[in-house]
Design a protein that fits this description.
Layout lengths: L2 H16 L2 H14 L33 H12 L6 E6 L3 H7 L3 E8 L9 E2 L13 E7 L8 H11 E12 L21 H9 L7 E6 L2 H8 L9 H4 L9 E7 L4
Parallel strand pairs: 1-2, 1-4, 2-3, 4-5
Antiparallel strand pairs: 5-7, 6-7
């Protein structure tokens, strides 16, 4: 965000807090009357974004670029790479365990919901997995998965149960993004998009509040670009790394199981 934009936001936010609603409405009316908006009505140039279908309908995978979501996910895992150690569990494949855990990982397990994944060491439904022993894993990486589970609270309860004391769950989920449907491919779809408030309540039910860190990434521009399936490298790094809590593209959670 530029200094001018930061100043404008500060003035706007301060006015919202201090000025009575009647005064704010009068100011907005004068802005409309005399076309004093920062971008006058009718003055937006939509350019290549004026279209009713996304630039890429499959999250940018057809553009052969690292997607914006994956950029943020990898940034999050890199930040918490010290947690990825010992016996680790990841969903679907062990790619992030290997990339960010490396030699710190002594055993890399992979959970899959259905049979047939050659990389899976565990086949289980996280909402009901009594065959996975308690206190099994030092780290669980669960990226872009919880939104696909209808009984999400039960899944988080399982994550807490199978995590070792002192172990960490690193979780990312959709916030403001397109729907990732898989209906007709298997028997799961996408049921939820989360906010920081919902993620806190869900994880606080199974982890002490002081052991749960919830954050978000994204801003209005990166959300628009992500909806169109653009790649992370197509956006200026300053724009990509400016985060506005009002535009939660992804909701990120680090939750640690307390020691006895």
């Amino acid at each position: 965000m530029t200094p001018a934009a930061r100043l404008e936001k500060l003035v706007r936010d301060t006015a919202t807090v201090l000025l009575p609603e009647k005064t704010r409405n009068w100011i907005r009316a004068q802005q409309r009357r005399y076309k004093l908006q920062s971008v006058p009505v009718g003055g937006v140039d939509f350019g290549g974004l004026r279209r009713l279908s996304p630039i890429s309908a499959i999250f940018g995978k057809d553009r052969d670029l690292l997607t914006i979501e994956r950029y943020y996910i990898e940034q999050f895992l890199q930040t918490h790479s010290a947690d990825i150690k010992g016996r680790c569990l990841e969903m679907g494949d062990p790619a992030y365990t290997k990339k960010f855990g490396g030699a710190k990982v002594t055993q890399a397990d992979v959970l899959n919901y259905v049979e047939g994944n050659p990389q899976a060491t565990i086949v289980a439904d996280l909402t009901d997995a009594p065959h996975i022993p308690d206190n099994s894993f030092d780290c669980i990486i669960i990226t872009q998965t919880l939104q696909m589970i209808f009984e999400v609270d039960k899944a988080i309860a399982t994550l807490a149960r199978i995590l070792k004391p002192g172990g960490v769950v690193l979780c990312t989920s959709h916030g403001m993004t397109r729907v990732a449907r898989r209906e007709g491919v298997d028997d799961w779809g996408e049921y939820w998009h989360f906010t920081t408030q919902s993620k806190r309540r869900l994880f606080h039910a199974h982890f002490p509040k002081g052991n749960v860190q919830v954050s978000t990434v994204g801003n209005v521009f990166t959300c628009i670009c992500n909806l169109h399936g653009l790649g992370a490298s197509e956006i200026d790094p300053v724009e990509l790394n400016t985060h506005d809590p009002n535009y939660e593209m992804l909701v990120l959670v680090r939750a640690m199981k307390p020691l006895p």
